[in-house]
Specification:
Radius of gyration: 22 Å
Largest sheet: 4 strands, mixed
Oligomer: single chain
Helix content: 40-55%
Strand order of the largest sheet: 1-2-3-4
Strand content: 15-25%
Structural class: alpha+beta
């Protein structure tokens, strides 16, 4: 009976070990993101990604990348949270930045990111949308973004430029509503939400054939 009990314990331990997720040092993610941030190519310095090259990797916004790299983001609307939606971040990236996540969860998240075949970073290059930002400049807003693919070593591989404008109906509505000396914060919020939603739609279409 003692032998059977010992075998049961061994089997239970083996099952626990098999269910344990692999881990990696989160410091490796910091180093990788620092390299990717440094290797971010200038516009025109990287070939255009094919649609299928933007499917299957880990994803994150540029804001998340610099947070993981532990470097301060450049100032400006391009690194504001509303135009760098968390919905674009892989769960592992969010877990690494979650102050409530324990060390084991973060180590498992680090392993998951390091195991991804590539990382696709959504980098906002320009937010020319004064009314959305809160400035009394009555014109339709424009956002320009690049989806940048990096390999496992943090080297840039390819990129895709996406430029879109504020919804015309929302822009016209905001112009009518902007009859005060300064922008109404509620109107700016509607415009920011519109640009946020449009960004998600454009990102969802990146993997489709042109």
């Amino acid at each position: 009976m003692r032998d059977l009990g010992a075998l049961a314990c061994i089997a239970a331990a083996a099952a626990c070990n098999n269910n344990h997720k692999p881990e990696a040092d989160p410091a490796r993610i910091t180093a990788l993101m620092k390299k990717a941030e440094k290797n971010g190519p200038s516009i025109g310095d990287v070939r255009e990604c094919k649609p299928n090259e933007m499917i299957g990797g880990a994803t994150m916004t540029q804001l998340t990348l610099v947070k993981l790299a532990d470097v301060p983001p450049t100032p400006g609307a391009e690194r504001d949270a509303w135009i760098n939606p968390a919905e674009l971040d892989s769960p592992a990236a969010r877990e690494l930045l979650d102050p409530k996540a324990d060390d084991t969860t973060k180590r498992q998240a680090a392993y998951e990111l390091l195991s991804a075949p590539f990382i696709l970073v959504y980098r906002i290059e320009l937010v020319d949308a004064p009314m959305a930002i809160g400035l009394k400049d009555i014109r339709r807003g424009t956002v320009s973004m690049r989806a940048l693919r990096f390999d496992r070593d943090g080297n840039s591989v390819c990129g895709k430029v996406v430029t879109y404008q504020q919804s015309l109906a929302k822009s016209d509505w905001a112009i009518v509503k902007s009859n005060l000396a300064v922008m109404d914060p509620k109107v700016s919020k509607v415009l920011r939400d519109d640009l946020h939603d449009l960004l998600l739609k454009h990102v969802a279409a990146l993997g489709r054939p042109d």
